[in-house]
Design goal:
single chain; alpha+beta; 7 helices; disordered C terminus; extended
Length: about 210
């Protein structure tokens, strides 16, 4: 059996440029060539690469798409959004999603999306939900606003019934979008379609309950 012919970096680049042109994506060809060449040179290396200065690690191909400055930038965002471990109670692991790894191939990079796994050690599901509820609210309250960031909304829980909030009808089962002032208050005030006042409390969101007042 004859081995498959190897594709050169220039041939790979030509294919990428043609694909980008068809999709209407703008590219920096010089940086794209450097990226493709780096991938070809990294074929014999370990799959996981660690940037010791920033503490960021990932698949070597993904890591090739970040400059040291960008890695430091995303690490700072990670410190802002991550939940902290609580020994014996909460274990976490934060990851940057692939949509952000577009710095060298695309002129305009993607969003700064993160994924975090949160393991909660608790005797019951209700207790685990209570702990997660507290984690999320504490994080939101501690990162409401800073010199370079501002919290806009936190998605948490779902509406247990139809409720009108600030003139907008929120259907039962739809996700709750908490604004900073509502998070600080710990509740969202509104009324049911029949005019009965209703309150959705943060501590009840995880169990899909609402209190009427």
């Amino acid at each position: 059996m004859n081995p498959e012919p190897q594709t050169s970096p220039l041939e790979s680049l030509a294919a990428i440029i043609e694909s980008a042109r068809r999709l209407g994506v703008e590219m920096d060809e010089a940086e794209a060539l450097q990226w493709v060449t780096s991938i070809a040179a990294a074929q014999a290396k370990e799959d996981v690469q660690v940037d010791e200065r920033t503490g960021v690690f990932g698949h070597r191909v993904v890591m090739l798409d970040f400059t040291p400055q960008e890695l430091a930038y995303y690490r700072e965002i990670g410190r802002l959004v991550e939940f902290k471990d609580q020994p014996g109670v909460v274990e976490t692991a934060l990851a940057l999603s692939g949509s952000s790894a577009q710095s060298k191939i695309q002129t305009y990079p993607g969003d700064s999306d993160y994924f975090e796994r949160v393991n909660i050690i608790a005797l019951t599901k209700e207790e685990a939900c209570r702990i997660l509820s507290g984690l999320m609210r504490d994080k939101a309250l501690s990162t409401m606003k800073g010199p370079t960031y501002q919290l806009i909304e936190v998605k948490f829980g779902s509406y247990p019934q139809d409720i009108v909030v600030e003139g907008r009808t929120c259907k039962a089962g739809s996700p709750i979008g908490w604004e900073p002032a509502q998070i600080a208050a710990g509740q969202i005030e509104g009324f049911q379609p029949d005019g009965t006042p209703a309150v959705v409390r943060w501590t009840m969101s995880h169990s899909s309950q609402a209190g009427a007042s």
